[in-house]
Amino acid sequence: MSAQAPELIRAKPVRRPSVWVWTAVVLVLVAMLVHGLLTNPNYRWDVVAQHLFDPRIVSALGWTLLLTVGAMVIGITLAVTTAIMRMGTNPVLRAVAWVYIWFFRGTPIYTQLVFWGLLPVLYPRLSLGIPFGPEWFVFTTQDVINAGVAAVIGLGLNEGAYLSEIVRGGLNSVDKGQWEAATALGMRRSTTLRRIIIPQAMRVIVPPTGNETISMLKTTSLVLAVPFSLELTFVTNAIGNRNFLPVPLLIVAAIYYLVVTSILMVGQARLEAYYGRGFDDSETAPRTVRGMSKRQQAILAAGTVHSDPNLEVTP
User: What is the reported pTM?
Assistant: First the structure.
């Protein structure tokens, strides 16, 4: 008596009515929010449209981007330097890096910017020379460190302290065997860092650094403590207070912040994908399947265990 073929079982997806309920709730809430934004006359969308491309605001946006780029360049440079100093064997350099991180992470950024703004008052003149000896170069502090320079230096020094721990964590995430292998090959420590350790650590460093860049874009609004009067938030507040319409001008600033932040998020995602190549299993799985024969793919799909010695999976 021949065995009957097993009856095929047709799987049906589990019904999830809660998904439709929550979708309806979210759509209703979004519709209420949009209705409130468009019908409330206090937002003054006509004023928002009038000042959206105001030359003063566009110029302030440029200064904000310049502050962000300058502060991040200083911060990244200091972060890499201090992270390497803390990982080194020189106790003096390790102590200097630790004190720098301790001070700038332990004091508020607003307080630091206030002191940078008062630097010409604290030190009216600066000089370069031998302590308690002759001075070679003497210059007035106000002529060298104006409000813009003080804002960039203050933001960069503060950001470098936070990024230093991010860089150090990224460098420590690389397996110690990489160092040992490079040392066994006779590579110098600087060459090992530049060609082996840092490229691998970028996968860990890039995501939080991107977040810090986006945060720095918004932190530039604190440079009014210097004071620096060409930044986006300062300019929009000044125009709004002059017209007795602060809310529409704040909306203009928020729109520009959202646009620039969205662009930075796209760039961050591209960098993460670039430095994450070879670590994503979803990228390697399709290539593994394509490298198999039809017989091997059928066995894999059936979920059966095959002990045939001729079964090989080609990478």
Answer: 0.78
CA–CA separation, 97 vs 84, rounded Å? Answer: 9
Question: pLDDT tens for residues 68-81?
Answer: 999 999 999 999 99
DSSP string, 86-128: HHSS-HHHHHHHHHHHHHHHHS-HHHHHHHHHTHHHH-SEEEE
Tokens of 31: 């519709």
Tens-digit pLDDT profile for residues 246-301: 999 999 999 999 999 999 999 999 998 888 876 655 444 444 444 445 554 444 44
Side chain identity, residue 233: T
**Spatial distance between the Cα atoms of 146 and 227, rounded to a whole number of angstroms:** 10
Report the distance separating Cα 4 and Cα 241, nearest Å.
85
- Cβ burial, residue 169 (10 Å; 0-12/13-18/19+): middle
135 has pLDDT over 80 = no
- Residues in CB range of 56: below 8 A, 6 or more apart: 235, 239
- 44 token code pair: 């003054």
Asked if omega into 227 is within 30° of 0 (cis), the reply is yes
Integer Cα distance of 164 and 82 in angstroms: 6
- Cα separation, 127 vs 257, in Å, equals 40
What does the block give as tokens for 167? 């860089």
Give me the mean pLDDT over the 207-229 stretch: 92
